[in-house]
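INTERNAL TRANSFER SHEET
From: sequence group
To: structure group
Subject: Catechol 1,2-dioxygenase

Please process the attached sequence and return the structure record in the designated field. Keep the field labels unchanged so the import script can parse them.
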Amino acid sequence: MDYVSTPPKLITKEADVTPTVLAAMADTDNPRLKEIMTVLVEHLHQFILKTRPTEEEFEYALRWIVEIGQRTNEFHNEVVLAADVLGASTLIDLINNDGMQGETMSALLGPFYRGDAPVCANGDCIARSQTPGATLFFSGRVIGTDGAPIAGAMLDVWQASPVGLYENQDETQEDCNLRGKFISEADGRYHFRSVKPAGYPVPTDGPVGVLLRAQNREPMRPAHVHFIVSAPGHKTLITQIFSDTPEALAADVVFGAKQQIVGNFVMHTAPHPDYPDASLPFYTCEYDFKLVRGKSTLPVPPISGKKS
Ligand code: BEZ
Ligand code: FE
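Return from structure group:
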C-alpha cells in the first residue's frame, strides 16, 4: 500500500476506536466468528465507554482474569466457576435447552464433571469410601417424551459428599467417590444407592471467591445430584435433581435450580425390605428422565481427575 499518498486513518478520539477495530476484523472468513467478534467488540466498547474505568481498575480487572486462568488446571476449573457465578452458564443452558417438547429440564454442568467415572451395575452404591450421611436409594426410568422406555441409556452421576466437597476437592475421599455410570434396563429403569446430598459452598479460595465476598453474596448451592443422561438418537440431558428448601433453591449462587427438577426425597423410618442393612432413617428418590429426540453428544469434562 502507498502510505505516502493514502495514509491510513489513525485513531484520534474515543469515537474512532469501535469502527476502526471492526474494520480491522472485517475480513474474517468464518461468518459465525465474524458475527460473534463484531457483537463482542461493540458491546465491550459500549461497556467501557459507559463505565469509564480508571487505568488502575483496568489493571485490576486484567489481573483478576489472569488469576482465573492461573487457578485452572486438570483438577480445578476456575474459568467454569466464574462463568457459573456470573449467570453466563445458566443463560447458555436456557438458550440451548428450553424444555418446550416435554423433556426434563436441564441445568448447568458445573466445574466438577470428570467424565471418567466407572461403569456400575444397577443397584451399586457410589459411596466408595466411608461417607457420612443418610443412605439414599435413587431410582427411576429413562423415557422418551412419548413415555416409551429407553433401554441402554447411560446415566453419568456425580455429587458432593454431605460434608460439601466433591471427591477431587477432598483427599479423604477415594478416587471417584460419589461418581458412577449406570445403564438403563430393558424397561428404561435405573437404580443406585448413595448418600443424601447436602448443600455446599462453591470454592471461594480463588478470584471468584474475592468477587463473591465483594458482592456480599453467599457461595451456597442447594443440595443436588448431577446427571448426564445420554442415549443414541436422543438429545443428551445435562441436569441436576435438587433436594432442598425453597429458600435454598432460590439462593443458588449459580442460578441453576428449577422447580421441574426438584426431586421428591422421601424419608423412611422402617427398614428397607430389600436392603435391611441400610441404617434409619434412609431416603428414596424416584425420578423419570424424559429425553427428546436429537443428537447424542457428551460435554468436554471441565476437569479430568483427582490430585493424588
Ligand atoms: C456444581 O454443582 O457442582 C457446581 C456448579 C457451579 C459452580 C460450582 C459447583
Ligand atoms: Fe454440584
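Handover comment: The chain has a mean pLDDT of 95. The CA atoms of residues 249 and 259 lie 9 Å apart.
Transfer complete.
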